[in-house]
Predict the 3D structure of the following.
Amino acid sequence: MKIAYLHASKYGNGASVAEEFKRQMERNDVEVEIHHIGDAKPKELPRADLYLFSSPGRMGKPIGSMRRFLKKVQLPEGTPYALLATAVTPRPDKKTGRMPTEEEQAKWQQVMPAMTDLLDAKGLRKVGQEQVMVMEIKGPLEDGWQAKVTAFAESLLQAR
């Protein structure tokens, strides 16, 4: 199995997640090629059995460069893909100290739905998704993030 991992890491958090994902998959004899979207051409992606797209969230959406990249992606209909995003950990309201509810978080965190909509519109087939939290915009990643990436890698192996 070969995976093309395309990420849009800005502060290095997504790149760290990509490297951990690659380590986990290589333990299972799966080849992973990691590419920053700034160095990839969306109409000339490398051949792979699975495409994994990863973006940080900005204002609740994938960053603009990832949205533009996904709009231009050209892959055959039915091609399997997965999503892995990084997002800032929710914080309590500064005035009330109340944490946002899951519904409120879902309203503002549209990274996965936005990426899914762009790729599903092309006829691609999603096989998994995961989100890794970042404590502050520039990091560090949440405690236990490696275990989350390991579990995600294992779920993709089982799905194949």
User: Anything to note?
Assistant: Residues 145-159 form the longest helix (15 residues). The mean pLDDT is 93.
